[in-house]
């Protein structure tokens, strides 16, 4: 395997804990615009290619730890990245899972939109007030587990360490929103977001960097998610 050129915008801060947040590669359900929370589907060929571009881009980094959602698409993504970091095994954490959409899992995004306005959904998820879908989880439960897992990761590591976190679009965006970091665009598949944590404060050096430069544009649902999160962060400023 040949490493790709290192993007110096991704360089770690030696005086901070640096988190490398990576969204999983594009999947069959992503391509089909189907709801994919706790359900799973395989990475597409272009999705795997995008992950491998990200892996080559991150190869020069010294990673001290790696965490991943236990979903198959994130396990596949983390395995490709860590192929360049022999000896480092990812720790699967349930708190990094995507939001559980219950009965809407694997169904077309259009069916969810027919049930609830997407901007309302994502705003109420961020506020912790959305009751959830049948068979799924409430927004409050979701926010608590996301906050808890990132708090634990930040507590377990010290300044100067570089930590990989492979998760999902909504979950990573929620963490950014909790950190007061605005992103007006949905995070592309296999994208890299770099967050420096210092004295309890979080700052983003890079948001949604796509090393492949070829990640498909997101659907309306994902972009509505990003817009709602951006509005919530700005309202809280």
TrEMBL record:
Upper taxonomic lineage: Bacteria, Bacillati, Actinomycetota, Actinomycetes, Micrococcales
Source domain of life: Bacteria
Its EC number(s): 3.1.3.-
GO MF term set: hydrolase activity
SMART domains in UniProt: PGAM
Name this polypeptide is given: Histidine phosphatase family protein
UniProt keyword terms in alphabetical order: Hydrolase
PANTHER family: BROAD-SPECIFICITY PHOSPHATASE YOR283W-RELATED, HISTIDINE PHOSPHATASE FAMILY PROTEIN-RELATED
């Amino acid at each position: 395997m040949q490493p790709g050129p290192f993007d110096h915008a991704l360089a770690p801060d030696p005086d901070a804990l640096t988190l490398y947040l990576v969204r999983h590669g594009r999947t069959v359900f992503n391509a089909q615009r189907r709801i994919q929370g706790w359900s799973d589907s395989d990475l597409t060929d272009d999705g795997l290619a995008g992950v491998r571009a990200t892996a080559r881009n991150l190869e020069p980094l010294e990673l001290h730890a790696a965490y991943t959602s236990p979903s198959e698409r994130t396990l596949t993504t983390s395995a490709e990245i860590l192929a360049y970091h022999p000896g480092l095994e990812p720790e699967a954490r349930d708190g990094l899972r995507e939001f559980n959409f219950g009965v809407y899992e694997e169904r077309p995004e259009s069916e969810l939109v027919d049930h609830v306005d997407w901007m309302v959904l994502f705003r109420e998820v961020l506020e912790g007030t959305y009751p959830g879908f049948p068979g799924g989880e409430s927004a409050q439960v979701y926010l608590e587990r996301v906050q808890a897992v990132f708090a634990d990761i930040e507590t377990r590591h010290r300044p100067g360490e570089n930590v990989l976190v492979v998760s999902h679009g909504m979950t990573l965006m929620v963490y950014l929103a909790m950190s007061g970091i605005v992103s007006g665009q949905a995070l592309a598949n296999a994208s890299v977001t770099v967050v420096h944590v210092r004295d309890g404060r979080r700052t983003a050096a890079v948001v949604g960097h796509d090393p492949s430069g070829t990640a498909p544009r997101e659907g309306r649902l994902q972009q509505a998610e990003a817009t709602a999160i951006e509005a919530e962060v700005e309202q809280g400023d």
